[in-house]
Amino acid sequence: MPFGDREDELWEAMKPRFKPRLVSDPNVNYARDLVNGTGPFATRAQATPQPKEDVRSTLARVVRRTPEVLVKVTGRKKGAKHLAAHLDYIGRHGDLALETRDREEIVSKEDVQRIADEWSDPLYWRQGTSVSAVAMVFSMPEGTNPETVKQSVREAAELLIGDNHDWLMVLHTDTPRPHVHLTVQAEGIDRKRFDPRREDLFRFREAFATALRSRGVEAEATPRYTRGQGRAGTSMALTQLRARIRSGVSMQPTEADLRQAREAMQIALGAAQQPAFVARAQARWQDIKRRFEAAADQLDRSVDREDRRLARDVRQFIQERATIETVPDRALRDAERRVKESQERGRTDRQRDQGVPRGTPPPPERRR
């Protein structure tokens, strides 16, 4: 029996969901373009469509834990000075060549400064400080061929950015994860701004993963909830700050961590409730599990041995993920552990103090 009967329902569970937020008039046009597939989304929406016949392959990659690509916006550079400092940093102060859209290599500080000035000059007429460039990073797990990562990023950039915006890229191999820094000029030839949002980043992830697979590297770009993982909800700056704390460079906890710990403690003490999005995440994961189980039943009835093998992998995948754990869930688990330890210490102290007459001085401390 063909797998196609369940494709539509399964793909509905696996595809990302984006909700434009309207806060003021400038965003109305943005939301209208997003919903209607017009404006900046007219070509991108058609750039990397997900063919329905590939749903089975996507399901196989998800349950078999194919490495997920990482694409992030790491910052927005305002003005020539800020942009030149960023380009100097990702070029390792001249040790690494920056590659242009036309494959020209930029090494000297003079050329870097020239590009920073060229990208910033058209913005002088704007009031206030405007973004000259958007910095992004594309990364793959340790062991991936760095040159393959680099060529895949170039293919994704050529597909989704095209010739409207200039851009520079450089490959870094000084960490276990090979990654590429892509810096894109904010002001396009048609005066449209490059300002990637969540849905744009997902398209970059899809294009990056597709380019990697075309080069023989297994890669996938699915939403976290499809894989049974809670949402990240962490900015690049917060991630870097937490890394400095873990490495011992800084001992000051982040305000976000302190606030999260306070909220979790209130929930553990019964004075507050979990955020609403936690319950929604749990409900969504239960729905996805139901659809995965239905797909496994369908695959089990197939005459193809590979389909039946995939069915076993799907069932093992959902068995290992009985529930989805979000960031607040982990904070709450830690808070509940600390509350329990405090209560146990209190009971131990009360048991030790029983039978001791009131006013009895504590025993003298032993000298070592």
Summarize the structure.
The chain has helices at 7-14, 26-36, 41-47, 55-63, 79-90, 109-120, 146-160, 198-214, 236-247, 255-268, 276-300, 305-319, 327-353, and strands at 70-78, 98-100, 105-106, 131-139, 167-172, 179-185.
Uncertain segments: 21-26, 43-53
Percent helix: 40-55%
Structural class: alpha+beta
Number of separate helices: 13
Shape: globular
Strand order within the widest sheet? 1-4-6-5-2-3
Question: Roughly how many Å apart are the termini?
Answer: 79 Å
Roughly what fraction of the amino acids lie in strands?
5-15%
User: What is the alpha-carbon Rg in Å?
Assistant: 26 Å
The number of strands is: 6
The arrangement of helices and strands along the chain is HHHHEHEEHEHEEHHHHHH
Outline the biggest β-sheet: 6 strands, antiparallel
Report the mean per-residue pLDDT as an integer: 79
Folded structure, characterized:
This protein has 368 residues and is α+β, with helices and mostly antiparallel strands. Helices cover 50% and strands 10% of the residues. The protein contains 13 helices and six strands. The protein has helices spanning 7-14, 26-36, 41-47, 55-63, 79-90, 109-120, 146-160, 198-214, 236-247, 255-268, 276-300, 305-319, 327-353; strands spanning 70-78, 98-100, 105-106, 131-139, 167-172, 179-185. A six-stranded antiparallel beta sheet has the order 1-4-6-5-2-3. Helix 5 (79-90) runs antiparallel to helix 6. The longest helix is centred in the last third of the chain and has 27 residues, at 327-353. The chain starts with 6 loop residues before the first helix and ends in a 15-residue tail after the last helix.
